[in-house]
Structure formats: structure tokens, C-alpha cells
């Protein structure tokens, strides 16, 4: 009965969802028809209709957000053909400019920072950053989120926020893999704080970079008595710091309620599935532990071979103060144990308890020194087969020094329907035969090398094929520094500055061109590039100006702070449906004129617009939100839930701080 009920619920759910979508579609259509009755031109009416369609597709996820954006772009292009039938003189967007988004500064910048981030990740530096954060913050969400967010917020204050977010994507991925915290619980706080960090300095976001130029342009039309002064680099710092702090506190307190919960990072999940697979198939059950050898331990003076001969555990990593030894050409069975040695031990709970009791060693509560090496995205259990013709046939694991030579710690041999394990005895002394399936613990890098070794056939295929190139750290750091300096200290376009760093990493083989292509999230690229024509239509048809005039007409007789708040709300709305740069360029002149009309400070109103255009958390139209949407597995409702509250908090804190500072 329960199964039948579940099946009926499963069948009923799509019907209910479709009904909600149809009802919402009808409501949005009625709104569009209503707007058509009051707008001054037919062009604005059609643009409002397209806006309603876009918001509907995003909010109810009728199709993927990238597909929705691309569909809207194509629809805008078709208006050139259908213009006579729509009552238009020409299309809503010139088809010659329809695909300019793919070559826009913002999109090319995003592509560049993704490549730069991948290049830095290839050197292993991001793993070290992740390790440091885990060492300081532990594995609890309440401590990790503030550390990640504050770090990203600081970086974002001096470089484009999407660049900061892209650089920290691999860091968050590694933290998720090591801590077991789902990516969905970490990426959104990081992304939101990256956006907030852009308000800390006048070079943190494109609107703030543009603001002083827009003020100087407005000054040309103003009398001497009304001239506005430009803002200094740190004029907005108190406001930005308050916003960053608000974002961090918000997620620390309310994160458990507003952040979506998923099964976790793929690497963690696949690692657990792998353990379950080998446990069920071969009876191989294990855990990974970090063990410290104290001065009074019985292991002192013994070799790894002697330890493993008496205890049913495998030592896969060792640290004696002279560097971490793990993988091929590193762990030698003749290695002796000294006081203070740290061991990476593989075994089940029972054998580990016996090992600890006999040896008088201390088990650490969680991985520390081996936190980077023994996580599922770097190493794990794998299955390899000895093929006919292998040079290993007739030899045992001890004969070939398998752990040292190949980086394989042998745990079991499956032969003829039977499994030889340590519990059965002699697994390391058993000569290999053709067809033997070996269950081993190894690094994924070592396993990748075995795929080209004719002595083995690698059965495990679903593992991270990651090649770390620490020797390229110098080149990666050099070109990252060059790109950063070009962004901060020159007038070069952001995309050109960042692409300089990206292409430099490719030319110096920090990563290959194929790896650079793989690093780019093309879903993000299509989402942003396809939305740019919509922003162009909103601007060129006069739709934006009409909406601004209507909203401001309603609050024209209110106190100055109410009018300022209305400007902030208007800027917030505009930045959701068009680029923040476009919203700033459009609204700053209007805000200046409104401020002069009501006797307020026009520079403060202009700054209100420039800051409020960073209040883009409600839907994934901001570059940062689009960037984290795929890796975090987020849906539009997730942004609405967490971003809705953040949007309100942003407006409240911004208004309070601006009225205190200015």
C-alpha cells in the first residue's frame, strides 16, 4: 500500500506542478496585458511583456535558466522579422547587436577568471588554502562560513567580485570534500559575500568604478554651486564593511533555515559509494585514521613491515618531520618509527582498536596533517586486475614492493570466487595470477599512471583524474599577479587584463588549452550573454526610464530618506533584470536630478544607486550567482528564499549606514 501511495504521489506531483505553472503563466500574462494599457509606447509594452516572460521562466523553472535566457535572446531577435505584425517600426533589439553579449567585457572576464582559477588550482595552492581554512575553522559550518566569507569579501573589495568567487570555487569544493559539508551550504554564503565585498572600496565593483565618471559627466550640466565632488577609494568602506558583516552574520544565524540541503559534494558521495561497493562485494571494510606515535609507544624502533606483520592495519602515509610521504616512491616498508611520527592508517574499527591498545598510540579525532592527502577527491579504494602477460604474474606484493613501486597498498585479492584478505592471512605474500582482482588503496594520481601500465588493467574508472603541478606555482602566481596589477593599476579593460593572466598560464603550461576549455562553465556564459540583449532592449526602448519615472512619481512628496530608499529599491529591481552597469548608467542621472529637485545631496543619491546595484541576490542574474548555481546545485527558488531576506537586510543596512556616514 505504501509503495502504491508513493507511486500515486509521484504521478500526482507533476500534475500539481504543471497546474501551478499554468496559473502563474495566466497571472503574468494578465499583468503584461495590464501594463500594455498604461505604457506610453508599443515598444515599452512589448518589452514589459518580455520582462514578464523572463521573470516567469526564471521563477518557475519551466526550463533551465540558461535555456530560458537563450530563448528570450532568440525571441528578441525574431522581433525584427515580426515587427510589422507587432506594430513596431523595427525589432526591439538590432540583430547586429543581438550576440554582442558573447563578446562583452563581463562575459569574457568571467571566462578568464574561470581559467585563472583552474590554473591556480592545478598548482595545488587552492588545496593549501582550503587546508588552512579547515585547520582554523574545523569542520563545522558555523566556523567555516565566516572564514570563507570574510576572506572572499576582502579579496572582492580589490578585484571584481566574480573573479574572487571563481578563484574560491575550487577552495570551497575541497573544503566540502574534506569536511563532508554539502557544497550547497557553503557556496551561496561565499557568493553573496563576494558581491557584498564589492561595496567595500570604489574599485570593488563596476558600478562604483563608473560612479566618479558619471558624477563628472553630470557636473558638466550643473551650475558651480551644485557641483558634486567625486568619492575617494575608501569613501564607501564603512558601508561595505557593515554589509559584509551583515551577510556573514545572516548566514551564521539563519543559514540552517535558508540554505538548501543536498546530499553533498560528488566526491564525498562517490567516496562513500565506493566504500559500500567494496564492503558488499569483497567484505573489505575500512576507515582512514591519523595516528600519532608518542614517546612511550611500543612502535618506536619498529619498521612499517614489522608493524603490519603483527597488526591487521595498513599504513598508507607517514610524516616524520621531513615531509609527507604518500603514494608511489614514498612509503617504504623498511621505514623506521620514531617518537612524534604521524601515521595514516587504514583499517576497520575492530582492528584499529586492537592496534591502538597494543601499540599505545593516539588516534586524532579527525584528519589533520593528512587532511589534504587522504580525502576522497585525492585517494581511495580502487580495483585493478592482473592481465595475462603481466610481468607481475608469479610474484607477490612483497616481491615487487607494490606500495613503494606503484603506490598501491594491497588490501585484498579476489580469485575464483574467493577473497584473500589480511584477516585470512598472507595477502601480501600470495603470488599473483592472471585474472586476479586486486583491491588497493591508492592516490588517484598513481591510479591514473597505471592506466598506461600493461601490468595492470584499471577497473575503477569513476575517480577524479586530477593532475597537480606544484612546479608550475611560480608561473601561475606570476601571471595571476600580472592580471591583478593590470586590473588595479591600469585603465585596461577588465577582460583584457584577466585574459592576459589566463593566456599566460596556458602558454607556460600551467594548464593545457583543453583543460582551460573544461574550466569554463558554458552554462554560465550562455546565461549571462543571453540576458545582455534584454538589458539593451530595456534601455533603448525607454522602458527603464518610464519605470523609474512611475515609481518616483509615487514617492515624490515623501521625506528625503523615503525618496532615497525608493531610489535604492528601484536600482535593486533594475539590477535584477539588466546589467548592474546599465542600471547605474541609467539611474545615476535620474537620481541626481531627483536629489536636486527635493533639496538632497545629489552625490549621495548617485552613490545610493551605485551601491544598490550590488543588491542582486533574488534571482541568479548576477554573474556571481550564475557562477555558483551549477556547482551548488541551486534552483531559482533557493535564491528567492535566501536572497529575499538578504535583499531586505542589504537595503536596511545600506540606508542606515549612508545616513550615518553622509
UniProtKB/TrEMBL annotation:
Localization: Membrane
Instruction: Give a yes or no for keyword Transport in this entry.
Output: yes
In Gene Ontology terms, what is a biological process of this protein?
Answer: potassium ion transport
One GO MF annotation is: monoatomic cation transmembrane transporter activity
Matching entries from Pfam families are given as: CitMHS (PF03600), TrkA_C (PF02080)
Question: Its principal location?
Answer: membrane
Q: Where are the transmembrane segments?
A: 21-38, 44-60, 67-86, 98-120, 186-211, 231-253, 473-490, 496-513, 525-548, 560-578, 590-619, 639-661
One Gene Ontology cellular component term attached to this UniProt record is:
plasma membrane
Q: How does it sit in the membrane?
A: Multi-pass membrane protein
Keywords attached to this Swiss-Prot or TrEMBL record, sorted alphabetically, are: Membrane, Repeat, Transmembrane, Transmembrane helix, Transport
Superkingdom field: Bacteria
Alphabetized InterPro entries for the sequence: Cit_transptr-like_dom, DASS-Related_Transporters, RCK_C, RCK_C_sf
Residues of the RCK C-terminal domain? 275-361, 367-456
Task: Specify the protein name.
Answer: SLC13 family permease
Recorded source organism is Candidatus Reidiella endopervernicosa
Amino acid at each position: 500500500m505504501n509503495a502504491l501511495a508513493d507511486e500515486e504521489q509521484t504521478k500526482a506531483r507533476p500534475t500539481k506542478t504543471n497546474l501551478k505553472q499554468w496559473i502563474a503563466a495566466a497571472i503574468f500574462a494578465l499583468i503584461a496585458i495590464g501594463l500594455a494599457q498604461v505604457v506610453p509606447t508599443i515598444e515599452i509594452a512589448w518589452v514589459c511583456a518580455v520582462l514578464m516572460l523572463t521573470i516567469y521562466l526564471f521563477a518557475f523553472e519551466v526550463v533551465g535558466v540558461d535555456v530560458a535566457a537563450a530563448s528570450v535572446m532568440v525571441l528578441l531577435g525574431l522581433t525584427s522579422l515580426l515587427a510589422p505584425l507587432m506594430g513596431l517600426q523595427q525589432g526591439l533589439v538590432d540583430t547586429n547587436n543581438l550576440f554582442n553579449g558573447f563578446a562583452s567585457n563581463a562575459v569574457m572576464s568571467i571566462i578568464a577568471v574561470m581559467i585563472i582559477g583552474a590554473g591556480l588550482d592545478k598548482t595545488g595552492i587552492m588545496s593549501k588554502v582550503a587546508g588552512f581554512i579547515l585547520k582554523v575553522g574545523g569542520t563545522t559550518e558555523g566556523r567555516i562560513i565566516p572564514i570563507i566569507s570574510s576572506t572572499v569579501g576582502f579579496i572582492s573589495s580589490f578585484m571584481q567580485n566574480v573573479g574572487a568567487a571563481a578563484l574560491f570555487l575550487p577552495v570551497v569544493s575541497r573544503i566540502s570534500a574534506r569536511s563532508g559539508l554539502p557544497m550547497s551550504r557553503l557556496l551561496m554564503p561565499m557568493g553573496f559575500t563576494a558581491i557584498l565585498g564589492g561595496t567595500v572600496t570604489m574599485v570593488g565593483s563596476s558600478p562604483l568604478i563608473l560612479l566618479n565618471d558619471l558624477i563628472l559627466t553630470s557636473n558638466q550640466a550643473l551650475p558651480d554651486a551644485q557641483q558634486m565632488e567625486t568619492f575617494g577609494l575608501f569613501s564607501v568602506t564603512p558601508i561595505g564593511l557593515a554589509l559584509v558583516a551583515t551577510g556573514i552574520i545572516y548566514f551564521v544565524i539563519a543559514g540552517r533555515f535558508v540554505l538548501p540541503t543536498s546530499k553533498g559534494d560528488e566526491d564525498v558521495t562517490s567516496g562513500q559509494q565506493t566504500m559500500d561497493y567494496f564492503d558488499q562485494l569483497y567484505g573489505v571494510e575500512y576507515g582512514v585514521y591519523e595516528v600519532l606515535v608518542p614517546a612511550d609507544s611500543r612502535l618506536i624502533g619498529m619498521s612499517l613491515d614489522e608493524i603490519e606483520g603483527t597488526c591487521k592495519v595498513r599504513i598508507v602515509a607517514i610524516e616524520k618531520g621531513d615531509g609527507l610521504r604518500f603514494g608511489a616512491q614514498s612509503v617504504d616498508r623498511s621505514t623506521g618509527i620514531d617518537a612524534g611520527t604521524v601515521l595514516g592508517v587504514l583499517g576497520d574499527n575492530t582492528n584499529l582498536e586492537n592496534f591502538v591498545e597494543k601499540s599505545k598510540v593516539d588516534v586524532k579525532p579527525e584528519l589533520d596533517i593528512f587532511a589534504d592527502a587522504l580525502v576522497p577527491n585525492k585517494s581511495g579504494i580502487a580495483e585493478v586486475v592482473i592481465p595475462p602477460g603481466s610481468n607481475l604474474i608469479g610474484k607477490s606484493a612483497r616481491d615487487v614492493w607494490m606500495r613503494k613501486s606503484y603506490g598501491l597498498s594491497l588490501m585484498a585479492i579476489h580469485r575464483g570466487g574467493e577473497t584473500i584478505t589480511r584477516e585470512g592471512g598472507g595477502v601480501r605474500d600470495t603470488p599473483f595470477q592472471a585474472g586476479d582482482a586486486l583491491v588497493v588503496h591508492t592516490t588517484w594520481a598513481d591510479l591514473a599512471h597505471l592506466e598506461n601500465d600493461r601490468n595492470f588493467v584499471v577497473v575503477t574508472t569513476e575517480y577524479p583524474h586530477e593532475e597537480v603541478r606544484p612546479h608550475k606555482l611560480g608561473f601561475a602566481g606570476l601571471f595571476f599577479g600580472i592580471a591583478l596589477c593590470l586590473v588595479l593599476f591600469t585603465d585596461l579593460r577588465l577582460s583584457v587584463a584577466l585574459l592576459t593572466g589566463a593566456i599566460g598560464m596556458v602558454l607556460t603550461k600551467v594548464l593545457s588549452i583543453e583543460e582551460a576549455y573544461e574550466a569554463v562553465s558554458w552554462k554560465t556564459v550562455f546565461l549571462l550573454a543571453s540576458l545582455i540583449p534584454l538589458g539593451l532592449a530595456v534601455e533603448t526602448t525607454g522602458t527603464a526610464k518610464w519605470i523609474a519615472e512611475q515609481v518616483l512619481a509615487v514617492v515624490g512628496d515623501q521625506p528625503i530618506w523615503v525618496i532615497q530608499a525608493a531610489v535604492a529599491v528601484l536600482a535593486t529591481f533594475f539590477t535584477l533584470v539588466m546589467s548592474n552597469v546599465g542600471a547605474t548608467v541609467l539611474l545615476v542621472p535620474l537620481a541626481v536630478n531627483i536629489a536636486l529637485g527635493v533639496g538632497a545631496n545629489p552625490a549621495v543619491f548617485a552613490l545610493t544607486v551605485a551601491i544598490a546595484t550590488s543588491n542582486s541576490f533574488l534571482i541568479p542574474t548576477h554573474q556571481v550567482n550564475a557562477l555558483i548555481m551549477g556547482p551548488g546545485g541551486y534552483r531559482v527558488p533557493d535564491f528567492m528564499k535566501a536572497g529575499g531576506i538578504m535583499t531586505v537586510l542589504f537595503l536596511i543596512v545600506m540606508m542606515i549606514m549612508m545616513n550615518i556616514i553622509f
